[in-house]
Amino acid sequence: MPNRKIDIIEKLTAFQGYFRIDRYRLRHETFAGGMSEEITREVFERDHAASALPDDPIRDEIVLLEQFRAGALAAGREP
Questions:
Q1: Would you say residue 16 lies in a domain?
Q2: 40-69: average pLDDT
């Protein structure tokens, strides 16, 4: 769902040391329409990250999820 609406209610740094943890209070547009309830998410800020794309070679299928990702918001990308 491109360009979904996100209302950031509050962003604060919960920890600052060797790494940083930012805490977000927000609401986001749901896939069914409307806005979510207020949620709180912590984002562990560090340099590089990795991801995985699970697949089932027997069924020749991959698993794709569509969900709100606070990390993408923190990175300045469309979640």
A1: yes
A2: 79
| Cα–Cα distance measured from residue 3 to residue 25, given in angstroms and rounded to the nearest whole number | 19
The answer to whether the CB of 25 falls within 8 A of the CB of 7 is: no
Specify burial of residue 38 (Cβ count, 10 A radius: 0-12, 13-18, 19+): exposed
DSSP state, residue 1: -
User: How many structural domains compose the chain?
Assistant: 1
- pTM, whole model, 2 decimals? 0.59
Rounded Cα gap, residues 70 and 42, in angstroms: 8
29: amino acid identity, one letter = E
Rounded to whole angstroms, how far apart are CA atoms 49 and 72? 11
